[in-house]
Amino acid sequence: NNRFDSFYDAYPNGGYRDLTLTVVYSSDRSKHICEIQIILESFNQLRVENEKEIIRFASQMRLFDDCLWLREWAPVTTQLMSIGVYRYVSLDFSQHIPFPELCTALTESSCGVKQLNLMTSFPESKCSDLVAQTLATRQTNATLSTLNISFNPELTGRALEGFSKFVALQSVNLRESKSIDDDGVVALVKGCGGTLLELNMGRCEDISDISAKAIAKYCPRLLKLWVANTKVTDSGVLELS
Questions:
Q1: How far is CA 172 from the centre of its chain?
Q2: 126: closest CA among 105, 149, 97?
Q3: Which residues contact residue 67 at a Cβ distance below 8 angstroms, ignoring those fewer than 6 apart?
Q4: Residue-wise pLDDT tens digits, 88-125
Q5: Which residues contact 144 (CB under 8 A, 6 or more apart)?
Q6: C-alpha pair distances (Å), 66 with each of 69, 114, 115
Q7: pLDDT per residue as tens digits for the range 172-219
Q8: Rounded to two decimals, what is the model's pTM?
Q9: Can you say whether the dihedral through the CA atoms of 97, 94, 141, 156 is positive or negative?
Q10: Which of 86, 179, 192, 204 has the highest CB neighbour count under 10 A?
Q11: Do 156 and 124 touch, CB atoms closer than 8 A?
């Protein structure tokens, strides 16, 4: 059974592949079957080293076909996100998220995540700098289409500069991320404005007409925009009309 064949669908097995041979000795009257597994040494080493961690981690996550919901970060999180199986990922943590590792996983060429929900708070503003610094050295991501980083009061415009690497974004939710500023929004729409369809900036209190003008310029396909409780004035709204 050749699971390395390009026609083999590894999706149901989480990306696992190997080559198995079944052997039956002609002299064995009982016809016992011996299976020989041929596996990449690097993959097997990874599996052996992380076996206990994977078992423990499995109790903290839920898998729904192509959905991954996590309550705790672990070393295997990056690997799970990078294997190209999961399309929808929700991170619901009460603990600190290692954002450089998260950003690295999202920008791996094999990553197939289309929707990311960060249902947690950036613990401190310097995390935004870590996001920007990590993504600045990574390739662009043309897969992620939905990004929900709402209700993050410590999220700053620096993080949005990094997230502008996600050039296929269609929906971005920044609601009540009150440290977001115009510089971050301008950087974001410059990077992904061409594909953006929905942008929620409700209650981002430092957003002004500068953002509105940038959105009008760089987001020709935008269908829905929320700017309630911001500093966007009638002048900014007219720019968008």
A1: 13
A2: 97
A3: 86, 87, 88, 89, 90
A4: 777 765 556 666 777 777 777 767 788 888 765 555 55
A5: 106, 113, 114, 115, 116, 166, 168, 169
A6: 10, 10, 11
A7: 999 988 889 999 999 999 999 999 999 999 999 999 999 999 999 999
A8: 0.68
A9: negative
A10: 204
A11: no
